């Protein structure tokens, strides 16, 4: 497995000079009349800028569900996406967009390419970024998949936190790293008691083997828990 650095709802892949985040759901606040205290766009852009400032990547891969609405992209959504892309470019990073199941309107507000998958080379391994809502073609090769889609969270001692899930050889002999949603407006699904069939992603083939990873941005610490099968027995 290549070296990953777990950060605020995103992962840094140093050997690939890249950051990957998933499930921004730009426009969710507008669609559901939710008001985030500092504003949805400001929150997404501010946290993205912090990641860019700290790690100075050459690329930022957005792993699907960049948009929230299926059928309409408003002017506000267009401007919010432009603001995120500008934040990347201002920091010298190239934004790369991977399509998710919410992104039917993405070509309407994005004039660059929209990928079904995007491959990174890291430590001699092929890391493929996908959204995670559908299986890749049988001939696609990867040593590790980085996906989103399920918005995983975990409850520890009564506190619910966004988490990453890592599964060795989880899909077609490839490792899988599932990211939490980058937007803080999505409540997420609590994975503590979830079995394989409870996940919406075909990349999860053995839920008991998934190892939760929680980043505490305030403490600057990353905590890795036992695989879900063993973790459930500890609760």
TrEMBL record:
Question: What GO molecular function terms would the record report?
Answer: hydrolase activity
Record domain Calcineurin-like phosphoesterase: where: 19-172
The domain of life for this entry's organism is Archaea
Q: Give the matching Pfam families.
A: Metallophos
This protein is called Metallophosphoesterase family protein
